[in-house]
Amino acid sequence: xxxxxxxxxxxxxxxxxxxxxxxxxxxxxxxxxxxxxxxxxxxxxxxxxxxxxxxxxxxxxxxxxxxxxxxxxxxxxxxxxxxxxxxxxxxxxxxxxxxxxxxxxxxxxxxxxxxxxxxxxxxxxxxxxxxxxxxxxxxxxx
Length: 142
Ligand SMILES: Nc1ncnc2c1ncn2[C@@H]1O[C@H](COP(=O)(O)OP(=O)(O)OP(=O)(O)O)[C@@H](O)[C@H]1O
Ligand SMILES: [Mg+2]
Known about the structure:
Layout: E1 2-9, H1 12-22, E2 31-35, H2 42-52, E3 66-70, E4 74-79, H3 86-91, H4 94-98, E5 103-108, E6 121-128, E7 134-141
Parallel strand pairs: 2-5, 2-6, 4-5
Antiparallel strand pairs: 1-7, 3-4, 6-7
The structure holds adenosine-5'-triphosphate and magnesium ion (MG).
Adenosine-5'-triphosphate binds at residues 9, 11-12, 15, 36, 38-44, 60, 108, 132, 134.
C-alpha cells in the first residue's frame, strides 16, 4: 500500500481541484474504491471527476447500484451501500464491469464487500473534519 496524495479540502471547490489532480492518474481499467461516512463527499468527487471529463450527468447510483457514463472514456459508478449480499453484485455482472479495460470504475462504499474487489486498486478515503472540511487520502494497493 502506497500513499500517493494527502489533501485537505476546505470546501467544494478544493475537492474539485483534488479531482482535477486525479485526471492524469486514473486510466481505463483502473478500479477506484471510495470510502468515508455518509456525506463525506464520495459522490461529489465522482461528479467533479466526470465533469472534468465532459460528463455532466453523474449522480449517486445508490438505488441503481451502478451508473454507466459514456464519455471519451467510459466510467462505471457503483454504490454498495444498499447491497445486502454479494450475490446481488455477481448477478448484475460485477466482474464483467471491473474487467472492462476500457472503463474507469468508481465504487462508493467498496469496503462493504471488499472481498469482491481486486487487490490492485486505488482507494480514496474521505474524512469529515467539519461542515466543509475534508481530509482526502489517495492510496494505491497492489
Ligand atoms: N470540501 C467538500 N468536499 C466535498 N463535498 C463537500 C465539501 N464541503 C461540503 N460538501 C458537501 O458535502 C456533501 C457530500 O455529499 P456526497 O453525496 O458527495 O457524500 P457521499 O460521501 O457520497 O455520501 P453517501 O455515503 O451518502 O453516498 C455535498 O452536499 C457537498 O456539497
Ligand atoms: Mg454517495
